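Hi P.,

Sorry for the delay on this. The queue was packed all week, but I finally got your sequence through. Input first:
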Amino acid sequence: MKKADLKKIKLPDSPGVYLFRNSGRKIVYIGKATSLRNRVRSYFNSNIASSRGPLIAKMLNEAAGVEFRETDSVLEALILEANLIKKHQPDANVRDKDNKSFNYLVITNEAYPRVLVVRGRDLFSDWKEQNIKYLFGPFPKGGALKEGLKIIRKILPFRDACNPEDRKPCFNRQIKLCPGVCSGEISKTQYAQLIRNIKLLFEGRKERLLLQLEREMKKLAKIERFEEAAKVKQQVLALTHIKETALLGSDYKVSKGGDTSSRIEGFDIAHTGEASRVGVMVAIEDGVANKALYRKFNIRTEKKGDVAALEELLKRRLDHPEWPLPNLLVLDGGVAQKNAAIRILNEFGYKIPIVNVVKNDRHKASKVSGNVALIEKLEKEILLANAEAHRFALSHHRKKRSEALK
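Then the structure:
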């Protein structure tokens, strides 16, 4: 399939799931998107093998067309994606990871079932079939599943860890994420209905769930249990208008700069005469370097130069919807690097503020260019991101170069 083929397809700028099919109409890949138009277009860049990997490049060569299914929210797209992958088992999805690398939603087989996210490797090694009441998945991105479950839990609270025998409210009960299993405020019958509601949602049957809740709301109002009816009404409204900013991940098209409580990412490239080329990403949160979020990349592209290496680095970073989208990108370099970053962001359909740190002969920051207001407000964080990216890139490069000499 070629980029020109997309002109024949009217892809909407809305959430949903896309399905690539081969000439025999077999589904070869399934993915979810915040914007179907932007996400599908992002597959047709000039360096797909290095940004998405050889398996996806092979899939695109085999693909003869793409179909899509719109959803009301990204959360529903996440659930639909998992259900379709389970049903069709597309080669490019299944072969990209074995079952042990995927994530699953488990509802346990207990009097008061727990709702848990379980890694495949743990599910297949530690769990017995009789301990599982319902199983949903595989979900390709564990981060997206966890964020989605946070949204659902605010609407349909459930038990995940508390003890029904405690008879005192757990922490999650105090913040209204547990319905009161621990404190004895909900009966087994009431909780079973709540679990059935969660099951309907993860089966992709939201319309059935809404109809059921509306009937329950009217029934409660009829017998003058108005407080309970109001709670059900809030569930209906919340499910109809899901607020899911945290779930948008790298599919989120716009990131608002200037919020120091959010995330700043710094990028840098290191090599010695084009040998042992590496790239890194660092993350600054609340003005502090969060080293648990740092990432290393071995540069694969055959194109020479820091700009080509940066393009690959940014493509590979943006191909991780489970990583939160930054509010600001900090690049090491000048106009060429900034223009390269803008090109990549446009390919993926994102708008993220960019600042560049230019170094002097002693490799010290001499100039920061970009949005003046952001630079004035976040100068300390910007310089920290740049310094950390440079340090981390050199460390990774030295290690790789050392290994190459052995």
